[in-house]
Amino acid sequence: MKNRVKHCGLEHRHPFLNAAGSAQLRAEIDAIIDRQIEQWYDTVPYAAHLEGKSVDSEYYRRHLIETAWRIRLLRVSESKALAEIAKRSPEAAQIWANYEREEMLHDELFIQDLERAGVTREQFLATEPYLSTKLLTGFFSYLLDHEGPLGVVAYSYLVEYVNVKLEPRKIEALKESVGETNIAGQISHSHTDINDDHPGEVWQAIRFLLRSDEDVQSLKRYLDEHQTILALYFKELYEDKILPLEKKAA
Amino acid sequence: MTTTLVKVSISPQNIDVDLPVNSGLTELEFELYNQEAIPFGCRSGACGACLIEVVSGGVDALTPKGDAESTFLSVLGYEGESYRLACQCRVLDTVTIRPISQRG
């Protein structure tokens, strides 16, 4: 009688990409993200605001609120992703579980900085997330139900790569504009991403999830789609906190 | 983009594998698929299945040993500098390693 067991992650033990192939694809993906970053600065309103000499306090507070919410909401779907990943690759699942362990409570770091910025935990909890944040969460659910976990993991690679590349510059600017002691949580968050090589960690999970050239093409599309949704958030933030001020001043 | 490769040799089988610099030694499991050169287990430094000895290339050919790895190796009775848990190592330079389980 045929063994009916499926989805145990043992069918494709040998990765689609060997170590050298994985390194080459990662370099290609990094170059794609570098181009996305340039496009981001060119097209997203106020994209570099937090890297500037002065920071609008309402914009800053709301950005921290939304960042904490994003972590709180996405960790639920990212936890669901673990089961889907384990069905495909136990190696990727082990890496993803470790990554999630390290990131799981990072919303607290942003909530601590919120308190330093004058927003209490109660005020944070009373603030409903933006629609763009809810849509990102919904996109993750859609991906897990209908396309698989690669798109969810791709989001983390995009975010981790961008964080490691750009966050130190932003942190240095915020030390001047907001004050070093007021951004201790964000500094700790950045330390984890950089010192623990989170981009490298997430890339290894991606590498084990890739099974074909078609998956590689999907990965590239996911990076583009995630950037589109994240841009919606920054547009929403700008329209909520900056545009009214600009209209008033005009 | 050029990937810098370094040679990892496995003794006594005389198997050579070229890996991108900074690759984890767990890559050997996939590069040597079905050859079982090193028996990886937990891949998190907790089980000791992938115990190896660095035969040549020196300790600097691999990323440094962490506290947790050192402690566990002591528990296993392998305190010398040359003993490592392969799953905790990234390769930095040409190195020859020997799985302890291969010792005759």
What's this model, at a glance?
The complex is a heterodimer of chains A (250) and B (104). Chain A has helices at 19-43, 57-88, 90-103, 107-116, 121-125, 131-146, 150-179, 184-195, 198-209, 213-241, 243-249. Chain A is mainly alpha-helical and 250 residues long.
As for the CATH topology of chain B, it is Ubiquitin-like (UB roll)
Largest sheet of chain B: 5 strands, mixed
What's the helix-strand series of chain B? EEHEHEE
Distance between the termini of chain B: 43 Å
Mean pLDDT of chain B, nearest integer?
Answer: 90
CATH class of chain A: Mainly Alpha
Give the full name of the CATH homologous superfamily of chain A.
Heme oxygenase-like
Report the sheet with the most strands of chain A, covering strand number, pairing sense and barrel closure: none
- The N- and C-terminal alpha carbons of chain A lie at a distance of 77 Å
**Count of separate structural domains of chain A:** 1
Helix content of chain A: over 70%
% residues in beta strands of chain A: under 5%
CATH domain topology of chain A: Heme Oxygenase, Chain A
Strand order of the largest sheet of chain B: 2-1-5-3-4
Name the shape of chain A in a single word.
elongated
> Unreliable segments of chain A (pLDDT under 50, ≥5 consecutive)?
none
| The number of domains of chain B | 1
Give unreliable regions of chain B as ranges. Answer: none
Structure write-up:
The complex is a heterodimer of chains A (250) and B (104). Chain A is an all-alpha fold and 250 residues long. Chain A has one domain: Heme Oxygenase, Chain A (Up-down Bundle). Chain A has helices at residues 19-43, 57-88, 90-103, 107-116, 121-125, 131-146, 150-179, 184-195, 198-209, 213-241, 243-249. In chain A, helix 7 runs parallel beside helix 10 (213-241). Chain B has 104 residues and is an alpha+beta fold. Chain B has a single domain, classed as Ubiquitin-like (UB roll). Chain B has two helices and five strands; from the N terminus they run ββαβαββ. Chain B has helices spanning 27-31, 67-76; strands at 5-10, 15-20, 51-56, 83-85, 95-99. Chain B has a five-stranded mixed sheet with strand order 2-1-5-3-4. Chain B starts with a strand and ends in a 5-residue tail after the last strand. The model of chain B has no long low-confidence stretch (mean pLDDT 90). The A-B interface holds A 13-15, 18-20, 22-24, 27-28, 91, 94, 98, 204 and B 1, 3, 5, 18-20, 23-24, 27, 30-31, 33, 43-44.
